[in-house]
Amino acid sequence: MSETKTALVTGANKGIGYEIAAGLGALGYRVGVGARDAGRLETAVEKLRACDVDAFGVPLDVTDDRSATAAAELVERTAGRLDVLVNNAGISGPTGPDWTQDPTTLDLDVVRAVVETNVLGVIRVTNAVLPLLRRSPSPRIVNVSSSVASLTRQADPDVDVGPIMAAYAPSKTFLNAVTVQYARKFAGTGILINAACPGLVATDFTGFQGPRTPEQGAATAIRLATLPDGGPSGTFVEDDGVIPW
User: Fold this and answer.
1) Could you say which of 18, 29, 168, 182 is catalytic?
2) pLDDT per residue as tens digits for the range 51-82
3) Catalytic status, residue 168
4) Closest Cα partner for 197 from 135, 244, 139, 152?
């Protein structure tokens, strides 16, 4: 089995996910680029390879069981094991003016779709590749969350947490809770799992509004993906440190 470390980044064909893949590639990781759209996937892999990243495409729809299983099998054939999983793929769901999702008029199908990707997709992919992560001497899992997941901040009238997003924000709170449960399960195994907030990044996800670049948004996830043995697990962090639950 190769000594080169391998990472899989979901939703890596653009934005923050792409920059996480690029950053890990620059550190010498072989990077599986997970994405649903075949054309965008091919373009992203070609772009990464042009930057001397050892990248390979991983067709992956995180909402589909068979797709997750096929992705795990592809990674196994390509690398034999997985050292880093970054669960970056996510959706906000439809929003009203100024990104709002009004809880009093929210379509339950929107909630289901957001949770299916942002939470169940993370569980689905993580469990599909877990046997490969267990083959790594230092496995790391990073779940890309958001500061809007913080119930402490959301409940504080003196903290500006942006618009009401009754589907997206709770889905990230749910993701954080799941992250903690995995951390408890992985205690003593060497698998470190943490949640990362990229901040408000100017990508198509935000309508290219936000003060941070995708490279800046990727930094915390890259740091958590490369933690040394004995590092923290079950934490929720941003550039400035720990975010309150």
Assistant:
1) 168
2) 999 999 999 999 999 999 999 999 999 999 99
3) yes
4) 244
